[in-house]
Amino acid sequence: MAQRAILLVEDSPDDVALTRRALAKNNIQNEIVVARDGAEALDYLFGTGAQAGKPIAPEVVLLDLKLPKVDGLEVLRRIRADARTKLLPVVVLTSSKEERDLVGSYGLGANSYVRKPVDFEQFVEAVRQLGLYWLILNESPPRPGRL
Amino acid sequence: MTTRAGILGRGLFEVFPDNPDDPTATGTANLRASLKRVLERRAPDTMAVQKYDIRRPASEGGGFEVRYWSPVNSPVLGLDGELTHIIHRVEDVTEFVRLKTEQQERTKALEGKAEQMEAEVFRRAQEIQAANQELETFSYSVSHDLRAPLRSIDGFSQALLEDYADRLDDHGRDYLQRIREGAQRMGRLIDGMLALSRVSRAALAREPVLLSAEARVIAAELKRSDPAREVEFVIAPNVSGDGDSRLLRIVLENLLGNAWKFTAKTRAARIEFGTTTDGARPTYFVRDNGAGFDMKYAEKLFGAFQRLHSPDEFPGTGIGLATVQRIIHRHGGRAWAEAEEQRGATFYFTL
Q: Contacts by B41-49 with C-beta closer than 8 Å and gap 24+?
């Protein structure tokens, strides 16, 4: 079974580098597709804009909330609103612990909400657990339109 | 001044004419009308309170003096039932009217003031709401924007430690470690500040809270966090209080967490929670037999960022107690502490 990509939606290049590093340290081999803002994320998922005709179907989406152009919650809303991506596992991975972000994210159908710790070792451990759960333990939803 | 002798035998309207300087004088007209009614009905007629100015003697400045009267005109009937006399009885109610007018003016003034104050209160309430809104936005920004660079500092320092370990000597590794610890400490400070500001922003919901149950749950969590430690928890049963359950939980988490922290070096550590019946209001307390502190510094205890121990001795941000105090104050209560160095500390609060 071909391994599917992880879509990482993150505007901070530092956080992208650190997340890649954390995934690598945990031997997670899936391809990591990086979208630097909400609009790019939607392009990847729906095959629009710069990604015209080449949508991706990731295993899981790691979604930051504060993004330029189209913000995280809006991306989540669009993912859940479209039949092609309605079932896609989305893990909100963000700095904020503000109640409105938690309520907003779960309310819009996020599967999980993880707050990025400052301590990098803790972050690596969090990514390890996320990887273990979403890529190995969790049964992926069926891809739409496939048997 | 009109004297009795001077008016006997003279006509009523001759002796008591209207004030010529007052074009609105109604005294004589109203009196005539009343007398006419008495004549026609052969029944007493009470006049409404009448303004009738009286002459002031030249020795007192002359002119007319404002007076108010309450007149009653009553008929005197003869044996044959015909009207023979009318008795015009008058009472001076000037003082009464004056007091009444004064009272009305005072009431009006007070009402005016009340309106002003209401407008002021409304304005202030709006200001506060605007300020809270700003604070909310600010906290939200802080939550995101300040922590992100800290992650970078910590993360890349760790990357250096790992990937360049062979090219770093002990000093180099030490410096990077300190950089990491600095970033993590700042992260904790930010979290503490956010928690403190969240307390002020949150709406207060009052309901009976089972404090004993909360305390037991927190004690169990503390024990789980460090199973190696032997700490005796004595939690009084059935203690409850009226307040916001989430905020009170934060109070207990902070106080019990502190007790846990400061008994880390105590051999037979004992942490108590209960109430003392000390007057009308129940006083709740959390007591430990740990490091304690010098009462000399008790004032500084609840100040934000104030610490009485160095981070080496006991870790902490110094915000916990400020948060506790803010929550207690929001509940209209009081928080204070008593302690002895090396013997322990007791933190009291009322709700």
A: B42/B75, B42/B77, B42/B81, B42/B83, B43/B75, B44/B72, B44/B73, B44/B74, B44/B75, B45/B72, B45/B73, B46/B70, B46/B71, B46/B72, B47/B71, B47/B72, B47/B73, B49/B93, B49/B97
